[in-house]
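Pasting as-is:
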Amino acid sequence: MSGKSALNKAVFLPNDERMLAAVQVKRRSKKKIPFLATGGQGDYTTFICLSVTNKKPAQVFLTKVKQFEGSSSFVRRTQWTISQLRQVNGINPMRDCAEFDLIFDNGSDQWMAGSAGEKCMFVQILHHTCQRFIPERKPEFTNCQSKLLGGTSLLHEAADSVTSAVQKASQALNERGERLGRVEEKTSDMKNSAQHFADTAHKLAMKHKC
């Protein structure tokens, strides 16, 4: 089971939610947190997760989840409703980058994802979810590449890539089928020619015998 599948199973399924996206992050600027506030549990991995309730009307949440070193369990920390999200700052609209900021009604966090690809996928799904579930006062997505906001979609690019691969494979099979068809046609012609030659030879043999 992958880390994100385990995260979904441990944190969200028991609460009748399903996880839409998750990104592993670390702070770009560390906050000074008292030792007692962390529980003194040592190093940990942080995930920002996007989830939706199965119960209607659906509610959407952003949740900060931690997994402490040496532990297979996950700890749910801070949670926000998606309506509390005010701004998503993609930092650089000109190129892929791992940095992004989330700004809420009561504070903000500066994050760096595990990779630029992870961040881009998370931001794109977050944007799509906001458009779908927030009827008004949608959060602002600033300094984000157009492909993340309804332009050339990463998801569409992936789908196009798969479609292209299928089309190429289908074309190759068709060409192979055509070649096999031509071979079968030539084989049939050769068989007919051989039969015709055998019939002619038999007729000549019978003629000379008479």
